[in-house]
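agent> fetching stored inputs for the uracil docking request
agent> found them:
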Amino acid sequence: MFKNLTILDHPLIQQKLFYLRDKRTNNLNFRTMLDELAGLMVYEVTRNLPVRERSVETPLELTSGFVLAKPVTLVPILRAGLGMATGILKLIPHARVAHLGLYRDKTTLKPVEYYRKFPSDLPESEIIIIDPMLATGGSAVAAADFVKNNGGKSISFVCLVAAPEGIALFEKRHPEIPVYTAALDRELNDHGYILPGLGDAGDRIYGTE
Ligand code: PRP
Ligand code: URA
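agent> prediction call returned; pasting tokens
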């Protein structure tokens, strides 16, 4: 249905998402599972990253192996995106982290920017924008706009739960950016929340509901 969308259907990813959806999951367990889930997702997302060959001396002889060809930059969309960043950094510890503060205005549902700090080598980086929720798609589109305006070229977007409305908008505005999600849900409600969804991700991570 959406040509740039990949649904990560690995059983471990799906099981953790199941528990994240459960309203009885408390903040501590939500944070812990989101962290684990983000790691599992990025393992799949980075499968085709370019590598380069390097020589290495083992205790016995000279051989060669492979390392990532380009730096990796994570762009978590604050706040909720930060809940996925630590899990990804466990797998890619040398990744840079660019912060982008966006909140969704409650009435207009449009993203409002409040913070931005990007590394200077964005143009050379493999960039992964992360946010658990892609609802109307406004925040995701704005984040990709900022990344491109700062010279970013090789970009992926990773979320946990997406709404069809948001994926359609993102695909229209950024057709060349692949989107990875653990679930494509049914629809948005009148307040822009994803159904069935998992509620407000930021509130569930940080206990601010
Ligand atoms: C949530 C979520 C996304 C955005 C998705 O953030 O983490 O950033 O909403 O909605 P959209 O696709 O309609 O733009 P929120 O604005 O609630 O801020 P928070 O992360 O600080 O809780
Ligand atoms: N932001 C969230 O955190 N959850 C939704 O369902 C929609 C936007």
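agent> quick read of the result: The pocket of uracil (ligand 2) is lined by residues 80, 133, 135, 192-194, 197, 200-202 (CB under 6 Å).
agent> awaiting further instructions
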